[in-house]
Amino acid sequence: MESIVTTDFAKFGYRELEITGKLLIIYAEYGVSFLGDGLTINLNINSGYVFLSDEDFNVGVLEDATAHIVQFFSCMECGHEGTQEEALEEDKDFLTYEGFCSKDCALKNM
Ligand SMILES: [Zn+2]
Rounded to the nearest whole angstrom, what is the distance from the C-alpha of residue 89 to the centroid of ligand 1? Predict the structure, then answer.
């Protein structure tokens, strides 16, 4: 099965390259505290989503409204995805539960 995530810029469209450019400029200027070594810019071919990912699978995405790079979480228990801000709007909280979206999900993994 072909991987739907690529780091091959030749496969990026104009819009995706534009997002890549913004990510690199913000990264160069401010750095990103939650991202470590083995950092790449990736494109999900299916969704058109462009994101930074390090070797520990921490993911950063461009938050358009603030022009900041924010952490994107994926709950290891239920698969719920989003940024911390999006999570809080849905009564979830990735930062409090160390990557799990809720107390329920965190408790199932203790
Ligand atoms: Zn969850």
Answer: 15
